[in-house]
Amino acid sequence: MASITKSAEATQTMHQLLDDPSGYYDHIRRYSTAVILASVFGQRGVSFQSPKVQALYHAQDRFTAILEAGATPPVDAFPFLKLLPEFVSPWKKEAKEIQLEQKSLYYSLLNETKDRIRNNKKGFCFLEKILDDQEKTGFSDEQIAYLGGILMEAGSDTTSSTLLTFVLAITQYPDVLKRGQEEIDRVCGSDRSPSFDDLDHLEYLKACMNETLRWRPIAPGGIPHMLIQDDIYEGYFLPKGTILFANTWGIHMDEDEYEEPDRFNPDRFIGNPFGCKFNPEASDDHRRTTYAFGAGRRVCPGQRLAENSIMLNIAKMVWLFDISSPSSEPGDVSMSSAFSDGFLVAPKRFPVQFIPRSKKHVEVTRKEFLESSEFLARYE
Question: What is the pTM for the complete model shown?
Fold first, then answer.
């Protein structure tokens, strides 16, 4: 069911890009949130202006802003700061407000799900299954509300930011789009858009996804981890309990690992699952295709779901559109100026053209849009 939902919402997004290409930024952001709303809570996010979509992004933006390095005082290093009263420590007030905003959103979605169950109007979603098993699992309402909320927040920004980064990349690397279209045309033709069944046959577009995740990772500073035992790294003693950040940006931009790391080059992943300079057969067991989702035991559990969504949308966009910059001048792709600041980053709005490749592609998309709308009506 989740795969059908993702495919239907991807088709909706392509239709929105056809009708309103100038709103591309919001349409792509809507997609990832709409998939989570439907799959987890059994609700639709028809447009970016939908109240639930807006509420999620407002809470998410405030949360990621306060997580940014330097946004709050170093209370771990200076514990006495925790004792300061709230009127001289505004970060405490901000954190409480964010908590209340998140809790209000999560509980409203939980209660709406409960109401549908009571009224025998199930939406075929994850939270309904959890509620059905609540007596057996012993989960409290608070645990269920936050479980749904965390799934929603974790799956929204990551997918949309990666898709926007891909669009930004191909406006500056048009040969990548051309090769992707050649591959998608061989696999799908023009009579239908790509589906999940096609993804395993799209080697170059998979390389495009992996290169997007490497080139501009959404969490460039990495996710904090805590050592569960003493360790030594390059001569430095790190005691148990130390908080470490895996510097994703530093890893992905390492010239010892990657040839011309700042260049968007999907070819590095063709025949090499790690995209690195070294022989992939000689790589150690800890090497990963991308560190954008973290690593180790705490790697993002939704990585495969996110990659499937990213890959499907890339395939559908490349199949349907010629995507280009309206300017002949080189565009800004710098992480320091073309992307937002924060714990999680995304491209700032940039000029781009989405031009349908043919009338046939448009006709197929509009037909598939009607079919997907029938399926998604169950969530309205």
Answer: 0.91
As annotated, the binding site includes: 300
Give the helix/strand (H/E) hosting 15.
Answer: helix 2-19
DSSP 231-265: EEETTEEE-TT-EEE--HHHHHT-TTTSSSTTS--
pLDDT at 108: 93
Packing angle of the helix pair 51-67, 24-36 (nearest 10 deg) = 90
What mean pLDDT is reported for the chain? Answer: 91
Q: How many CB atoms lie within 10 A of CB 10?
A: 26
Inter-residue contact 228 to 244 (CB < 8 Å): no
> Distance (Å, rounded) from C-alpha 259 to C-alpha 223?
25
Residue 283 is predicted with a pLDDT of: 57
For residues 288-299, one letter each, b for 16 or more C-beta atoms within 10 angstroms of the residue's C-beta and e for the rest, the string is bbbbbbbbeeee
Per-residue pLDDT at 70 exceeds 60:
yes
Q: Residues with Cβ < 8 Å from 304, sequence gap 6 or more?
A: none
Task: For 302-364, give the DSSP string.
Answer: THHHHHHHHHHHHHHHHHHEEEE-SSSSPPP--TTTSB--SSS--BPP---EEEES-HHHHHH
**Residue whose entry in the numeric block shows the structure tokens 């495919």:** 7
| Residue 66 half-sphere exposure toward CB, CA atoms < 13 A | 15
pLDDT, position 110:
93
**Residues placed in the known binding site for heme:** 300
pLDDT digits (tens, 9 = 90+) for 282-329: 556 677 889 898 888 888 888 888 899 999 999 999 999 999 999 888
Contacts of 222 (CB under 8 A, 6+ apart): 245, 246, 247, 248, 291, 294
CA distance 10 to 372: 9
Query: Strands (DSSP E) along the chain, which ranges?
Result: 224-226, 231-233, 236-238, 243-245, 321-324, 353-356
| C-alpha to C-alpha distance for 11 and 312, rounded to whole angstroms | 10
Q: What is the phi/psi pair of residue 233, to 5°?
A: -130, 115
Residue 67's pLDDT band (cuts 50, 70, 90): confident
Between vectors from CA 18 to CA 123 and to CA 53, what angle results, nearest 5°? 40
Q: Using CA atoms, how far apart are residues 89 and 97, in angstroms rounded to an integer?
A: 13
Q: How far apart are CA 341 and CA 337, in angstroms?
A: 9
